[in-house]
């Protein structure tokens, strides 16, 4: 090997060593950082799905970072015999901590019944479960008033009477799809 070739090899090795030293830092950001996200939906006080014969069978978890970059979007089964569910996700971080908009949707089939969104800051490793309040966003969520018909009627012993219910929104427009239940 010639003297100039040796100098070139030494120069390349020196540059490679400097590159390794420059990139071997204990960073809190960058690719390879991951966080475990656990989410528990919190239903409104007094919510009674059984009273209106509603069943939630799917939970969807959507995690969005800035700027509008979806980091996670997956559905999970919601077993019929459970009244709560905790879902978990493995999230890739650009930095630690990093804040995400976390949305949970609770569905009956393909119909979203409840949903909630909350900002959650995630750090590398495991995190404590985020409790996300959910509100009803399903069919009839805009009902402002209900009308029960007939308003009055006579009934003989052993007879039956069928009631009808109509729903209106805040502007007085009919709401075509909603859930309702009553007992006498």
Relative strand content: 35-45%
Helix proportion range: 10-25%
Task: Tell me, briefly, the overall form.
Answer: elongated
What is the SS-derived class? mainly beta
State mean pLDDT (0 to 100 scale): 79
| Side-by-side strand order of the widest sheet | 3-2-5-6-9
Distance between the termini: 101 Å
Biggest β-sheet, characterized?
5 strands, antiparallel
Order of helices and strands: HEEEEEEEEEEE
Radius of gyration: 29 Å
Number of helices: 1
- Give the low-pLDDT segments: 2-30
Query: Total number of β-strand segments?
Result: 11
Give me some keywords for this one.
disordered N terminus, 184 residues
Quick recap:
The chain is mostly beta strands and 184 residues long. The protein is built from one helix and eleven strands.
Layout of strands and helices, then pairs:
Layout: H1 3-23, E1 29-42, E2 58-65, E3 69-77, E4 87-95, E5 98-108, E6 111-122, E7 125-126, E8 130-133, E9 135-136, E10 145-149, E11 164-168
Parallel strand pairs: 1-7, 1-8
Antiparallel strand pairs: 1-4, 2-3, 2-5, 5-6, 6-9, 10-11
Polypeptide structure, described:
The protein has one helix and eleven strands; from the N terminus they run H-E-E-E-E-E-E-E-E-E-E-E. The chain has about 180 residues and is mainly beta. About 15% of the residues are buried.
